[in-house]
Amino acid sequence: QVQLVESGGGLVQAGGSLKLSCAASGRTFSSYAMGWFRQAPGKEREFVAALRWSGGSTDYVDSVRGRFTISRDNAKNTVYLQMNSLKPEDTAVYYCAADLYGLGSQLISAYEYWGQGTQVTVSS
Q: Which three-class secondary structure state does DSSP give residue 97?
């Protein structure tokens, strides 16, 4: 098993930046795919970004592509989500997730382990 803890959320103005962190423990995650999801009030949880194990390739939902960047630091057992040019519609609780099979799917069901989430609020 692996435990995930998100941090770095907060309140920012539109156009600002935040960097979220997801610290992992329990097992090394060097071979895992990691994903970020978010859930806004009254909305379904949606895929944001994924970092696949094979080739280190990334994937993003269209609404964040070009603004958000997912990365990892295996030495620190940490995955990051750099968020630039934030918009009010980015406001949500952000969750990190781990897929031990390394596929980095956009589907929630593909991920076995989840963090508790961190709140991101973007004011207009």
A: strand
Model confidence pLDDT, tens digit, residues 20-39: 999 998 876 667 899 999 99
Sheet order of strands, 68-73 included: 3-7, 18-25, 78-83, 68-73
Check if the beta carbon of residue 82 is closer than 8 Å to that of residue 69: yes
Q: Are 92 and 18 in contact (CB under 8 A)?
A: no
Closest CA to 48 of 102, 2, 117: 117
Residue 99, C-beta contacts closer than 8 angstroms, at least 6 positions apart: 32, 33, 34, 35, 105, 110, 111, 112
Which residues pair with residue 115 across a beta bridge?
A: none
Q: Quickly tell me which residue has 């989430």 as its tokens.
A: 117
The amino acid sitting at 40 is A
Say what the pLDDT of residue 28 is: 65
Round to whole Å and give the CA distance between 106 and 104: 7
pLDDT at 30: 65
Look at residue 2 and tell me whether its pLDDT is greater than 90: no
